[in-house]
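User: Structure please.
Assistant: Input sequence and predicted structure:
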Amino acid sequence: MRHHIGEQTIRFESRPAITAVASVVGPKEGEGPLGQLFDKVEPDMMAGTQSWEKAESDFARQGIDLAVKRAGLEIKDIQYILAGDLLNQSIGSTFGVRSFERPFFGLFGACSTIGEALALGAMLVDGECADNVAISASSHFCAAERTFRFPLELGVQRPLTSSWTVTGDGCMVISSEGEGPGITAATAGKIIDMGIRDANNMGAAMAPAAADVLVRHFQDLKITPDYYDAIATGDLGRYGLEILKRLMEERELPLGDRATDCGVMIFDNETQDTHAGGSGPACSAVTFASYFYPRLKEGVIRRMLFIPTGALMNSMTSQQGESIPAIAHAIAIESQ
């Protein structure tokens, strides 16, 4: 296996390029620190539709359509669409892409979905199975609260460890040719379950999974954290990021100031009352597309390790008293 390095890492010799990205978000995200960087801010949480779920599908449709056009392509030039979300049977994605009539892989990695899609999309392109692949991850605050916690109408008080699911969609086009940051390696994560059962404390459940894949990435490639200019996890939030940093210090691989979390970046907790920060598949997807991608393209960030994180649970498992298994995928992206 010429691409396989160590136990869990794949090195991409052709460095598949992320040639275009798009970010479409809701009104709360538009009011946050990254508000001016998003491609489109929908002023209406319903996006002109009749339900939150239909709105999420519309976000997904808009994100993919915009990214493909920005790449200078037509939808017929996309060999595969890879997309996922949090809703039952991934209806946010499937209903969003059905009008495109392109080969489709529906993914589920919870909030880590965009990392899973980046890895699989790069494999398709590097393996010469596709020239152009579109990947997408979406979520919606209202739909997620109803699915995983409590209907908004109940007015349940949210604990400080809870996160705010990002409303929106982040899409990227991965191509065999064209300009853009290159995907150089991907370390697939393992399911890590530390027995956390609190559905309002996702950061604590996911941080050990992020630490596990980080350690494996560094060991497989025989590098240390200072190889990267930026290390960004997906949805750990304030408390999860603190746990991750402590775990990495215990493993003598301190992340230092280069480490941040998309869930911390996307909202201003002081003014927006989001407690632990942002979460949801769209969180890391839109933050990467709006903030990190331009800096990679300009060379301000030369090397980045992107680690979307996900909690692999649903409302039924929580009601049955199950713990929360988590996963994270590490994607190395370098400026070309």
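The CA atoms of residues 134 and 173 lie 5 Å apart.
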